[in-house]
What does this fold into?
Amino acid sequence: MQVIAQMNNLRISYRKVRLVANLINGLTVEKAMMQLTFSKKAAAKELLKLLKSALANAKENYDLTPDNLKVASITVDAGLVLKRWQPKAFGRATPIRKETSRVKVILEEIVASGKTKKEKKIDTSDIIKVGTGEFDELKDITGKQEGKKEIKKAKASDKGFASKILNRKTGSK
It folds into this structure.
């Protein structure tokens, strides 16, 4: 059973993230978390967050225990590049490339348990059946139906100041 988690647009260059990712490739989940916890690289904090997310996916979706999981593969690819410009002397500008990375972690069972993805149960207790007649027409306390509003005819006194002035000039009321 494989469990996948991925992170897109991590604002660290993919070359820097690969250095840390290669440390945990093939380790058990516990050892990988220890390795990332004590690493001084900035990418280690983000990879630890991703590894915890993959572990949560394994627990929630497949009922797998963390003791039986290992990091099968971790791939780091280049993501989007944010292009900025730095002003330089004599009216020139030099480009600045702010690189991002995409990381994908695949966890795998050490000993196969044969579990499959859990089926989610849908709670139907709060669903109102349409067309039963109970909720088709809502009535307030006085017994009047909601939705029907009384339409008022507009009078000249209800009009705003501008329309009063314009009506005087044209001669109509």
Observations:
- Residues 42-62 form the longest helix (21 residues).
- The beta strands are 2-10, 69-87, 93-109.
- The CA atoms of residues 77 and 156 lie 70 Å apart.
